[in-house]
User: Fold this.
Amino acid sequence: MIRHSILGLVLICLTLPVLAVEPAEMLKDPALEARARELSKEVRCLVCQNQSIDDSNAGLAKDLRVLLRERLVAGDSDAEIKEFLVERYGDFVLLKPPVKASTYVLWYGPLAVGVLGAIGVAVFLLRRRGGKAEDVAPAPLSDEEQRRIAALLDEQDRKA
Assistant:
């Protein structure tokens, strides 16, 4: 019983992206609709941020899908549509923004954060481990401890 419930839940989750594009949004021309689907896979949902507008059910994603289809019907090329969206929303609207000075943070920011984090951890560990030699060296034995060690060694010698 539980297996069937889990299987049903998995199947529903797998179909959610398909349900994002509503039938009313779809174009009658199959070639234009195919272009629209491909283009909408390259455009980021500005609400969800890690999904394309093709996968998102957010209201803004729907608006962007409709806008994209209107531009296709008007005769715009794919490049013109992307350019229009970038002018309106910035390079962040593309799931793969171009590498240029204004997008270096998007491309290299995660790498920089990782490197700085690794350096920070290394410095922390080295400072924690480091210190003066006298801080790390063991304290000298007391007179009582030295007598006890001497007695144990003498006892060991007698047994041997």
Summary: DSSP finds seven helices and no strands in the chain.
